[in-house]
Amino acid sequence: MFRPEQMAKVSVTGSRAVMPAVIETVHDLGLVHLSDYDGSWSGFENGDPIEGADATSEKLVTVRALESTLDVDPDEVDPQATLPDDWEDRLEALRVRVNDLDDERGETRDRLRQVDERIDRLEPFADLGIDLELLSGYESIDLVVGEGDVGEIETALDADDAIAAYETFVGGDVVAIAAAPASDGRPRAADTEGLIADALVSVEFSSYEVPEVAETPSAYLEELESEKADLEFEQAKIDDELAEIAAETGPFLRRIETELTTDVEQAEAPLRFATTERAFVAEGWIPAERYDAFESDLRDAVGDRVEIEQLEVAEFSDHGHDDHEVGEPDETDRSKAGDRDPQSPESAAEDEPERAKATDGGTTGAAAGSSGAVTMDENPPVVLDNVSPARPFEMLVQMVGQPRYSELDPTFLVFLTYPFAFGFMIGDMGYGLLYMAMGYGVWKAFDSDAGKALGTIGIWAGAFTLIFGYLYGEAFGTHLYNLSEAFTYLPLEGVLAKGLLITEWANFWILLAIVFGLVHLNLGLVMGFVNELDHGLKAAVYEKLSWILAMNGLFVWIFSTHLAGGKPDLLFGDGSPFYSMEAFELGFTGFPEIVGIAGLVVMVVGLVMVGIGEGIAGLAESPAYMFGHVLSYLRLTAVLLAKAGMAFAVNLLVWGAYEHDGSTVFNYPTYDVTHGGYEQVFPGLMHLGDGPLVSAIAIVGGVLVFVLGHVLVLVLGITAAGIQMLRLEYVEFFQKFYEGGGEEYEPFGRDGAPTAD
């Protein structure tokens, strides 16, 4: 549960003649996380792809390109059962047909884009209503068309001494400006060039290039719109045809992709092996408990033509598997090889596997005494091993990173604490049922592992919200026992209160959040201590036990009667909610003074150990580490009160409020004001009674406020409670022990790792 599945390193050695059969069998089994040979073993090189790999890869590229063009979604289209014998001919015909249609679609899109560009250029001139031939070709005047503020344009033109006269023509947002230069003689083209642009240099003005069109702008624009409609119809026709092809051939393409992907994986597998001309060595990791089944299945497929060995069973520590030296075959094995005819195929088949196994290093650990050698040394991949209810919460852990093989997996503790804290903060039966429904909806809507996990987490969070809502006696922010006395007879219903109106409950939740934080952080530090034992007891003591002593010593003193005058009354004594509540009594009056002094001593000892282990940097961090991180858990109480207040405010607007005995405000969906001591503060939207019309409008408004208000609280509950607890898990809890960075278990021949049994 806190450790991943134990992994075993296995080796398969044999003649290259049986390598394809071994690859196919290992691929079908889907158990081995292959190791990559790093080329460090003298005389062995990485293998070459099996013959035909390039051609298979090219076909796979073709299939995936067709799926992309046809928009075939692998998550929505299932492969057909089998492939016909003529699938290659059908694939080629499909490729030609789809490529022709795609080329035609591309040409149509290009033409459509060009038409759109011409329309965009012409539309301003159509609004202007002037023939295009009248907007160019002048030598004696300067003529410009564009967009700008007409008033600012005319002011700038009036102020320019270089302009003798001008005229503006306005159509929509478009302005045409014709201006003649001031000249003693006949105007020349040189006098008119850039005349208007110089005058409008300080005015925001965008000029248009005048299109060269013989027709009127309106007539040509109609032709372009008609051409655009024809092109859009042609494009839609091509899209429909491609969609029909996708519906018809999608399962066919998915089956080909599945088959070719398998073929490519198998063909390229030798790239990860250590090989010679006649032999190969393949290594990888499998769950240790499945080794016997793996060996049996592989023997059934290839017989005694290969050597199968379990080289080691990795221990759960950074040093659990030795760094094996990779050596050359020793002299004994060379002499054995020399007794055979090196040109004999039989000799080659027997000799090379022996050479592949023989080293001067050997192996240790669980495989001690075997003749195998670990030629590819790396950390084991990780297969998390959690009970079924906790598995969806692996996603929350993996968002930070896959746990390393040598460290404890926090998934089970996240499963215990995350939905519990979420439910504590929201605590409402109505919201709980809705969260469960939302979680179930997500679970049904998504087929991916992440979608299923997210939906399940939502269901768990909703379930605890429902449980705490029952204990608080609330549904949509309303106390059920205020609706009917019948609710008061239910066991434990309403035994708790959120503390929005009763201060002692708010104080109780403050203290409980601190205690929860202490327990949570201590669990993290204990897990960190266990992880650090890999580096020795001394490292674990100075780096983790030191903080356990310092933090707990401090809070034992805080909750003690030592120097009681300088501490808040809610920590101990008769005024502490841990001593007595209206609903129950815990009887805690604080630790005795001598215990508090002992706590200070323990804290000092812990800080001295921190200084020895982590130096000045550790001591500088100590206030936040041993005090600030604990107080960070007060956000649980803050969210509890904030969400309760928001729901309460919505209900006050809808149902109204009464003051009782001058101190307490109540809100009821239905209420009776005839009881003595009740004074109406606000009648609520649902009870405004100034005529039928006003009442009807108020009721509709009340319903809208009730629905929208509680939807807002519901959504903010996800972002506030969900994110705040996630932050406590990641920042405060994980920081005490978690590093991550483990390697995912990706068995050859299977897309994902199996779940632990």
What labels would you give this structure?
alpha+beta, Alpha-Beta Plaits, 757 residues, 52% helix, 3 domains, extended, 20 helices, four-stranded antiparallel beta sheet, 15 strands, single chain, six-stranded antiparallel beta sheet
Protein model, in words:
The protein has 757 residues and is an alpha+beta fold. It has three domains: 7-47 and 273-367, Alpha-Beta Plaits (2-Layer Sandwich), CATH 3.30.70; 137-209, Alpha-Beta Plaits, CATH 3.30.70; 388-736, no CATH class. It contains 20 helices and 15 strands. The strands form four sheets. Strands 1, 2, 3, 8, 9 and 10 form a six-stranded antiparallel beta sheet that branches. Strands 5-6-4-7 form a four-stranded antiparallel beta sheet, sandwiched between helices. Helix 3 (87-128) packs antiparallel against helix 7 and helix 9 packs antiparallel against helix 10 (345-357). It is extended.
Put the structure in a nutshell.
The chain folds into 3 domains: 7-47 and 273-367, Alpha-Beta Plaits, CATH 3.30.70.2170; 137-209, 2-Layer Sandwich (Alpha-Beta Plaits), CATH 3.30.70; 388-736, no CATH class. It is built from 20 helices and 15 strands.
